[in-house]
Write a structure and sequence with these properties.
Elements lengths: L35 H6 L23 H13 L3 H7 L5 H37 L5 H4 L9 H13 L4 H8 L19 H9 L5 E2 L7 H6 L3 E4 L2 E4 L2 E5 L2 E5 L21 H8 L6 E7 L5 H9 L1 E8 L2 H13 L5 E5 L11 E6 L22 H8 L1 H4 E16 L4 H9 L6 E11 L1 H8 L9 H12 L1 E13 L8 E4 L9 H11 L8 E3 L4 E5 L9 E6 L5 E5 L3 H7 L4 H10 L2 E3 L2 E4 L5 H15 L8 H6 L1 H4 L2 E7 L2 E12 L2 E9 L8 H15 L4 E6 L4 H9 L3 E2 L12 E6 L4 H14 L3 H14 L4 H13 L3 H14 L4 H13 L3 H14 L4
Parallel strand pairs: 6-7, 6-9, 7-8, 9-10, 11-13, 22-23
Antiparallel strand pairs: 1-3, 2-3, 4-5, 10-12, 11-12, 14-18, 15-16, 16-17, 19-20, 20-21, 21-22, 23-25, 24-25
Helix pairs in contact: 2-4, 7-31, 26-27, 27-28, 28-29, 28-30, 29-30, 30-31
Length: 840
Amino acid sequence: MQPFAPRSLHGVQPPPLAPRFPVRRVPGDHVAVLSAQRLAHDRGHRVAVPRHRHARPAPHPQRNLALHRQFDRAAERLAPVRRSAEQNPISCPVHQRHARRHRRQLRLSVRRTAFRCELQNECHGQREHGSHCTSASLRKVPLVLGPQAALDRLREFLIASGFTEPAVLQRLGIGRLSDANNLVAGQPPEDLLDVLIYLFLLGQSVPREALGSAGPIFTDLGLIVHDEGLCSADVTLYPTNGVYIASDRTRGRELPEASSERVFSAISANTEEFLSILPTAPCPAFLELCAGAGAAAVIAASRYATQAFAFDISERSRLFAEFNRRLNGLSNVTVSRGDLYQPARRRTFDRIAAHPPYVPSLRAAQVFRDGGADGETLTRRVIEGLPAHLHPGGRFYGLALMAQYADQSIESRIRGWLKEAHSEFDLAVVTRAELNPASVVLENWSPRHAEQGDLSRWQSVLRRLRIESFRYVMLILERHAHPRHAVSLVRRTAAPRFDPRPVERSFAVAQAPWPLPLPLRAVPGIQVSTRAPLDDPQNREYTYLVASPFQIEFRGSHTTAEVLRSGQGPGDEVRALLAAGLLDPQPSVVDASPAQLPVLTELLREYAAGVGSTLCFESFEKELASLTDVYSHLLLALDVTGPVGAAALRPLGSGAGEMKRLYVRPAARGRRIGELLVNAVVERARAAGYRRLLLDTLPTMATAQALYRALGFREIPPYTAQPVEGACHMELILDCGPADQAFRDGLTHAREGRLAEAFTALEKAVELDPGHAAACKELARLSRLTNEVRAFTNWCHEAIRLAPHDPEPHRMLAEALAAAGRHEEAAEEEAIALRLTPSP
């Protein structure tokens, strides 16, 4: 029986339909080609769609474009009957019931028609191209791959407008760009930076003349569209990690219909976390799989990779990634379309990164998010391809959602995917969060892409697979450069602000010979809890807890505390504490032996390559050939991963020595190894009887200059001819007074973990010399470590007063304010620190 919808009750011409109807999949239906006239005429009748046992062959996607255009025009002319009913209310209950049924069936018929249009192209595209090619890829991609000169002008305009990540964070008062997704525009834009933020981050329209003479560039490249004197963004464009990235927009004017090939944003919270776990050590060949906009590959190519590759199965993603490559002016990025490793053929890579689609789903409705019933379909295929494409000594980094089964661990499942090559890989699985399966399904379940009975099917799938939980995990796999035993590290929960470097160090600790030739020290922040039964209070259980970098609980005894304090004890207990992550091997500095000179030479070559200025290394090869003749002391910094740094000392005459070639490998930075090397050089210079220690450094080495100032070096006029303009010359008086001696004692105590003695010595240094800025800065750092907020703030402000051109106190203050949630003040301090930091 046809639903009854009296035309006499719906005679008023309704307004045009604004949103498109969502897509719904109905497998088994063939495409019903409906003309716009028929669709409009049958406004009050159900559109019959026959079901066939065998679907008819799909026409070519290009020929089917007319069908999509007909549907779009018809949908725009269709009136929401609900709005007509509001204008002509129905009083008869029978008519109301029939009208509701009519509206429901009308919506269903149009959704089915839209789905069949999409399904027709999708099936034909997969047969023809062997990859994903749906109607979404046939829709107009907003970006235009214009001439390189136009993209260069756009990049120059963005830089000149101040559209950089630090400036945007400061202007919006947020800590990271993903927080901008929760903001809305307030007052009208005041300058070009405001205009760009409103357009591309907040999704607001601005007057056409707001972009000035650069407006045509944005229009020609497809970044903005015009409408009645206003312009609005057609993509999201943002600065991140020193590059510019464009992706599909998620805000602003009416969004296009949900697409299976949407290019995901690189400033979502999950993608920001993925980018943060990637190391920045030099890499010859970097590969990003499931690349989307290609953010990881573009960042790698701009900072540390000799050559970067971005692969994605979606043609839309390939176009966005290619646009981003050209926008950043990078010639060392290769963007290709294909199924995972397919474009690589037989090539291997030194570092592979993947943030694959991992949302559990019953069907692949959205390429950028759906990962099969357990969320592991793409993750499994990525790992299965590592033996063929990861170079020996290379590493894989991934962020994924994985199922925890009742009878199989994540670690054993991954090793099964590697098959017979599993013994060639070290594996680390770090849990970032543990989620209830039902919550994951309901959170990501979308009626738009669902079918009747999906929730019941989900219940049976979860029962059949016996999934206990879903875990959001970080995966690191390292392929052995030489044959050895495989290491597996499974960390249950990582700290909220997680740094992946401790995981990489754990690999090295597990591989290191025993006993370790390095001093051991307990990781900071360990707390001890005890528990004893009432009837036997002497039988205590000791639990040692630490929250960072992993949340660890270690069951020990009362003697464990002494082992942690001293770093020494019975071998089995020390090894257990090392494996648990409660003891950390500390770097040490030694005088290089003749057998270690080749390693030292290799480090110095890395140093020369990283500096980039040939003027400082005109006779470098001659220097390397006669190191022991040029320098009186050659120092090597050793860590559990091997040699990580170097420094040298040579005499200058007149009671002075010069520190040269201070270098720490990028992967080892952040562990105060540079400070260890400087202090070792100072000790040897003092032992040699030098009264002064001199050095010169390039103007681009702002971090090194900050370290020297913190250790008591002062700027002086040039003491020798220096070919590099703007070089900084510094001096440390070794025959120091009591204030400097107290300051050095404080640094030694702090390095050894004796914080009470360090505070006493540093406060004595300030008492003896009230203008000792380095002592004030060190007191601020120690106060923050001990959570003395008021003392930290006071010492920071005192250091800023004494050394107004030093960016480090401002940076420390910004980090503390951001951690306290005072983002606006933190952004102001960070901006001051950036302004004081010398530009490269």
